[in-house]
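We give the chain.
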Amino acid sequence: MLTKKTPETVKGIGTVKCAGDVSPLNLTFYNRTTDDLSSFMDTNITNAMPEGTKNPVAWVNAQVCLYIIKSFDDGTDTDFPLTLDGMLSMEAYYPNVLMGIIQLFHTARMAAVEKN
């Protein structure tokens, strides 16, 4: 039976491939609902971007990542702290990694229905 009771966090395990490097990425995400994420976007991002932001897409994705990531379980936060500057730095070193993290979050939360 499906209920509204879900775990507080979900694990996301992926691999980052960039510039000839292949690195594991293991995260713990807050188990935010789609409505939670939409509400966050509406209230915290729509008009909050600082004027003169050089890369608006990275800024938005960094804000979303900070909202959904509870922790890096693989030590990534040693080089890239779980802060806005840390996320933007990660994006500079690994272009499009923040979008990949957001996709990993959605995949980690995605339901799978299997035939018995």
